[in-house]
Amino acid sequence: MAGGWQQVEGEVVQGHGVASGVKEDPRFPGGTLAMQLPFFAQHGLDLSGFHLATMNVSITPLHYRIGEPRFTIRDLKWHSTEPAEDFSFVDCRVSDPETGGAVEALIYYPHPETKPEHEQPDDVLEILARKKLSGVEYGSRLKLEVAAAQMTILE
Asked: Which of 108, 132, 90 is nearest to 16 (CA)?
């Protein structure tokens, strides 16, 4: 990949539980990701092979800046009563604590300026991985490799 990869380590922190559906919100049966999946596919992003939950990884004291993401979908009306949102997706790889190998992943970035609620702190990356990582829990440390042209990790 042109531009290479930036490495960063972070800690898994608790999220809002709406992406996965863990928080049983009647507006989002099965979670927001399951509801968004067909809309993303209509725009050329097939997430059907991904585990439909995000791992929230804090990279504090670092933060990040979005560059040229792999995918950006603007003004996506994915819910009948919620406002349209903008989403970007950045290529990354996450270390698998069980195997020591790297798992293909994407950073899921709902643009904060269009997101109506469930904001994330600016040091938290929402990771969508190709598989659920065994043994990962709140407080686990994960190593990430982020596509440098798509996102810059800043001090």
From this structure: 108
Across the chain, which distance is largest between two alpha carbons, in Å?
A: 43
Q: Are 81 and 107 in contact (CB under 8 A)?
A: no
The class that CATH gives domain 5-154 is mainly beta
How does pLDDT run across 29-39, given as a tens digit for each residue?
778 899 999 99
* Burial of residue 102 (number of CB atoms within 10 Å: 0-12, 13-18, 19+): middle
- Stated pTM of the model: 0.90
Domain chopping of the chain, boundaries = 5-154
Sign of CA dihedral 13, 150, 46, 120: positive
Helix (H, G, I), strand (E, B) or coil at 39: helix
